[in-house]
Protein: Phenylalanine--tRNA ligase alpha subunit
Organism: Amphibacillus indicireducens
Amino acid sequence: MKEKLTALQNEALEQVEQAQSLADVEKVRVAYLGKKGPITEVLRGMGKLAPEERPVVGELANKVRESIADAIETEKRILEEAALNEQLKTETIDVTLPGRPVQVGGPHLLTQLIEEIEDLFIGMGFEVREGPEVETDYYNFEALNIPKDHPARDMQDSFYITEELLMRTHTSPVQARTMGEYQGSKPVKMICPGKVYRRDSDDATHSHQFTQVEGLYVDKNVRMSDLKGVLNQFAKQFFGPEREIRLRPSFFPFTEPSVEMDISCKVCQGNGCSVCKQTGWIEILGGGMVHPKVLEMAGYDPEVYSGFAFGMGPDRIAMLKYGVDDIRHFYTNDRRFLEQYHEA
Ligand SMILES: [Zn+2]
């Protein structure tokens, strides 16, 4: 009986060792330790043994069963671990694969230019103000000395939302709003950049949407020479110290006198070329001394206060500065165009 048990044990252990899979191990378990297995059979047949032999055989049978069970458990763990390792190996992420590139955008060329202009004027003590793009007729026209029947309205035909609400045609209403807010209580020194709208037919030099930067300085004793000084400083810093400026008389309803400012042509150094239409000068902005009526409407006493205002078009400046031949490039969002001006 003892030899039979020992032989069973050896046989079982050998089979466990040879098992290739968890299924094989399970087969061995069922075969040797199952209810119909040989060991159970031995234990069942104990009754036929002599009484003194029963505990000895019983003990041995239990030991054999335990050692087979242990071997099965160990083998199971080994096989499970191997299976896990195999799974980890096949499911490994290959970190050497190149990633999908992230599309990184950048500020629009006009935004970059406007920020550059802002920096220059902040350096001269101006504050940056913003206002709504949907504006009232009052702030867009009336407060700027352009009553309903004024011919200047023809030059600024707009998109009306109601009789009294429109897409602003310039950023000047922000000046009127700021002066109205201060009510003559303190000086105003501000620039207002932003998008403006006009009912224009789009072509190479016209767009129904474009940008403006306007400036306003109202204080006691502000003179025409201050306007010239500020604009000269701006032109030299922005376009280069070698550029000359000149002021020509002009007309705007909200300034008196009014001027237009030209800078000397960079391409021909003032000698005349196709860029400057043979004049040697390129028009950059308009401005003038704030009309007394505009000051009065905003609560500033024109006998005490005076001021200057100016306005420029970043679109036009960008076209000149970067040689862009069509204003529509700024608004059609062709990335081949826009990407050329991304800052590194
Ligand atoms: Zn020129």
